[in-house]
Design goal:
- By secondary structure, the chain is of the alpha/beta class.
- 46% of the residues lie in helices and 7% in strands.
- Strands 3-2-1-6-7 form a five-stranded parallel β-sheet. The protein has a two-stranded antiparallel sheet with strand order 4-5.
- α2 crosses α7, α14 packs across α16 and α16 packs antiparallel against α17.
- The longest helix has 22 residues.
- The two termini are 26 Å apart.
- 32% of the residues are buried.
Length: 383
């Protein structure tokens, strides 16, 4: 789907504030998703400024923090600080410690691909204890079955949901947000509003600097460890985005890895293979050790997902992901480049539970081929 961008004479901060004011003007409850990460900090600061300036009603606000148990200590402290701020101005704050499912990238070697946050059967090895204010159950929750993406729409159906999701974070988010206004329902029909959807990463960091918002230490630690600006994402430890940096964060949180392995024994894989295909890494050190890469990734993909899929994929979810990759492999035959086949191969090895990488690869192949066709029609591939 083509995405049309329209320039505006309004800066992104002003536009975000207008969207927030519009959300509160409906007179219904406004639920704000808050994670303690950089994007949600921007949204929280905007909402807090509007409350303290009297432009929106704090009594309509419910801040929701889904505590996934496996989080960095500085994230917990950041959330506590913002909890105090919002409670003091009259908003409500839900600190949810619920038994929800979360994909566990370490469990690809077993039949269990889900991590149950705050699993009652494993309370003796929880990575941390829930705070005293935590909400441990909810009428809309199906314990141990729901993911929080399934649970939250039911829990917030009586109001509007706002969150700090940004289109520039990924191709998938851009496509999703571009499609929101295409139907009769539009962005308000599904009760989801994204006030900072058009912010770039630089907008986020500049806003946090200009407003003096204190950011969690983990971002500085990740930067010091050599993680690029575009990869400074903080999420639950067992997601593929964060798992590979766990080992390097042990320098800053000495007992962290020990607690993580006690909770999830397979997490030792991060210590052994963080710079490998398992976690989608490709550092200079890895390239030097592996030498020249002359593998035929298309042939390896065909062997994996067409000829002998049963040798590689064993769980229902793995088989589902492999089938989606098979369809795309057939669809892009003749258009994909060697690097595209390599990306597909490494994504399958690392795990692509939500198929985000697959969608990004398909988008990249389609756009590249369309550009090649355009140039070819104008007088040759190099014209």
């Amino acid at each position: 789907m083509a995405v049309k961008r329209i320039r505006s004479d309004m800066d992104v901060v002003t536009a975000a504030k207008k969207r927030i004011i519009n959300a509160f003007s409906n007179g219904v409850i406004v639920y704000m998703s808050f994670s303690g990460g950089k994007d949600s900090l921007c949204l929280a600061e905007l909402v807090y400024e509007l409350i303290t300036s009297g432009k929106i009603d704090a009594s309509l606000l419910v801040v929701i923090f889904v505590d996934e148990e496996a989080i960095f200590p500085c994230i917990e402290e950041t959330v506590k600080a913002w909890q105090r701020k919002f409670l003091l101005v009259g908003a409500r704050f839900w600190w949810l410690c619920l038994e929800v499912r979360h994909f566990n990238c370490f469990n690809q070697l077993t039949a269990d691909e889900s991590f149950i946050c705050w699993d009652r059967t494993k309370s003796d090895v929880w990575i941390r204890r829930p705070p005293a204010c935590a909400i441990r159950t909810h009428p809309a929750l199906r314990p141990r079955e729901d993911t929080y993406q399934m649970f939250l729409p039911r829990a917030t159906r009586d109001g509007i949901m706002i969150s700090g999701v940004r289109a520039s974070e990924s191709v998938q988010r851009l496509q999703y947000m571009a499609a929101l206004n295409m139907g009769a329902k539009g962005i308000t029909g599904n009760r989801q509003i994204y006030p900072i959807y058009d912010w770039k990463t630089n907008d986020v960091w500049l806003f946090l600097k200009d407003t003096g918002v204190e950011i969690p230490d983990i971002y500085m630690y990740m930067w010091q460890a050599g993680i690029g600006k575009g990869q400074l994402r903080v999420s639950q430890f067992f997601s593929s985005d964060t798992a590979s940096c766990l080992v390097r964060m042990n320098e800053y949180y000495p007992d962290l890895m020990e607690r993580v392995i006690r909770r999830e024994p397979n997490a030792y894989l991060a210590a052994l293979y963080w710079d490998s295909e398992m976690f989608g890494r490709s550092t200079k050190n890895r390239k030097a050790l592996e030498g020249k890469d002359d593998r035929d990734y298309k042939a390896e993909l065909i062997d994996m997902i067409i000829k002998h899929p049963s040798d590689y994929f064993h769980t229902d979810h793995q088989k589902h992901v492999a089938e989606r990759y098979r369809r795309v492999l057939i669809k892009v035959d003749g258009m994909a480049r060697p690097r595209d086949y390599r990306k597909m191969y490494e994504a399958l090895i690392a795990g692509d539970p939500k198929l985000r990488t697959l969608r990004a690869i398909y988008q990249d192949v389609a756009c590249s081929y369309a550009e090649y066709s355009r140039r070819f029609r104008k007088g040759g591939a190099n014209g």
